[in-house]
Amino acid sequence: MNLELISHDSGGPILKDSSNESFPDISKPIEIVLLLQDLEYGGTQRYAVHLLKNLDRSKFSPHIWVLRGGTDMVPFLGDSRDRVLWLSHSTWVDPVALTNLAWRLVHRRPQILYTLTVVPNIWGRILGNIARVPVIVSSWRDLYPKQYESWMWRMSTRIITNAAALKELHTQRYHVDPQRVSVIPSGVDHGFFEPDHYGKAAHPTVLYIGRLAREKDPLTLVEGFRLTLKRIPEARLQILGNGRLKNKLQSLVKRYNLESHISINPGVKDIRPFLKQSWVFAMTSEREAFPNAMLEAMSSELPVVATRVGGIPEMVDDGETGILVDPHNPEAVADALTRLLTDKNLREYMGQRGREKILAMYSIDSMVRETERVLLEAVNDTALRKTSL
Q1: 138 pLDDT more than 70
Q2: Which terminus of the chain is less hemmed in, N or C, by CB atoms within 10 Å?
Q3: Closest CA to 312 of 286, 348, 335
């Protein structure tokens, strides 16, 4: 986006780009606070860290405020570590955190408050409106966020979601003006997640990365993989994640005597060794938004087997970058896994096409630049409304 100074009827300079959109005077960087519940390892946290490190400093002065403890992402902050403030180091969002948040919003009052994840979306919007923060931007990154959205979306100047499917679902459910909602797909560091053609496991290996939760339905993946073993006895499945279904998964693996074929590992900070060993990435969610792990797998040139739910069809081109199946269908999962594990040319073609799509549509740079555009629009819209009053 190329910006240039132009005159404005109200007398103050504003900025205009080649698409004739008007933006506020940003001769001074706009102070923006990214409000997170924690800095534990997760897609939203990574998104916030990317913004903190990459927002244009001539336009924005970004900071992260964290409501509770959790420091997994600290090593990724680099020189931006001094821009992070913990409002509490408790294991939960306690009254101290909320009191500190309210005090700082009143006394520091950033120009933009960007609330990310459920608890910040609730308390950030309430306290931000009480403190009269000029612009409040909120996030939709879950299919069914428990954040009282039917009432609270009105407290947001603008809402950002990372999938068109989420925008359609939530605007219909909560009757939000679609013009208030912007879709900015997640980005992946394609230099960090890159293919390795020499580190593949000797055995045909399938990888799942994600929470071990009901909506992710890893049980269907285990059932589908069990059927795959009847056709490819040497195959392996690596499950990487934490969650309530861990014991149930372990019991299922033991019942089928698959301990030598299926390994269940806790989540790790660096998933690249697992990606580099694997032949195929699989995810059999019954509900899904826009899983970052799938983008990282595609960036690593892994073909994908996944269910046709939520934002996944936006990510995976069926027959081109992977194979989509219906949820709760282990037979279809087995067919797709068998097809990919036994056809090297197809795996390589889909893997290459997947990385090409990541490079074209899901880069960190495009995600940050689009976020900047929406933030500037939100500030400008607020300024124009005040001028017209």
Answers
A1: yes
A2: C
A3: 286
Structure tokens at 340: 């990919």
Query: In angstroms, rounded to a whole number, what is the distance separating the alpha carbons of residues 377 and 301?
Result: 36
Across all residues in the chain, what is the average pLDDT?
Answer: 91
The pairing of strands 22-23 and 112-115 is unpaired
- Alpha-carbon span 308 to 298, nearest angstrom: 16
Are the beta carbons of 77 and 84 closer than 8 angstroms? yes
What's residue 197's pLDDT? Answer: 85
Q: How many whole angstroms separate alpha carbon 110 and alpha carbon 87?
A: 16
On the question of a common fold for 3-187+363-381 and 205-361, the answer reads: yes
The domain locations on the chain are 3-187+363-381, 205-361
> What is the third-level CATH fold of 205-361?
Rossmann fold (3.40.50)
Query: 1-10, 80-89, 252-261: lowest mean pLDDT where?
Result: 1-10
Q: What is the DSSP string of 32-51?
A: EEEEES--SSSHHHHHHHHH
242-258 core/surface letters (b: 16 or more CB in 10 A; e: else): ebebbeebeebbeeeeb
User: Residue 23: is its pLDDT beyond 60?
Assistant: no
- Residue 118: name the closest of 152, 85, 90, 89 by CA: 152
Q: What per-residue confidence (pLDDT) applies to 15?
A: 45
Domain 3-187+363-381 listed as CATH 3.30.1330.90:
no
Name which residue leads in pLDDT, 8 or 61.
61
What is 147-196 written as a DSSP string? S-HHHHGGG-SEEEES-HHHHHHHHHHHT--GGGEEE----B-TTTS---
Residue 71 burial by Cβ neighbours in a 10 Å radius (0-12, 13-18, 19+): middle
Contact 79, 62 (CB under 8 A): no
Interior/surface letters 114-149, b for 16+ CB within 10 angstroms, e for the rest? bbbbbbbbbbbbbbbbebebbbbbbbbbbbebebeb
